[in-house]
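BUG: 3D viewer hangs when loading the predicted structure for this chain

Environment: internal workstation, default settings.
Expected: structure renders.
Actual: progress bar stalls at 90%.

Input used:
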Amino acid sequence: QEHLVESGGGSVEIGQSLTLSCAASGFASHRSSMGWFRQALGKAREGVAAISAPDGPEYYANAVKGRFTISLDNANNMWYLHMNDLRPQDTAIYYCAADYPPFRGLGPREYQYWGQGTVVTVNS
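Structure tokens produced before the viewer hung:
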């Protein structure tokens, strides 16, 4: 069965960087959507970044454009979220997600397969 595991969360200071990893297993080769989402305290889960395999376009939430980058390692079934210039409002639980075609974009409700979440805390 399809399975996702996130890692790389932690506590950082404003302006610092952090990279999250997602390891996937059990997916068929036609997996098309890989994404990152986050949920802050008291707020709904929101899309952060998404990419279409194997090298499709990238999509980013306005709040992270120019600061975050999603990358894909097709050979190892992993994808990453590179976060730069972190701010307090980036504090949240971050989840990776995936699904089969059609491409799911940045809508959390569109994804069927999810990791367990990893906490990112940005200290002011």
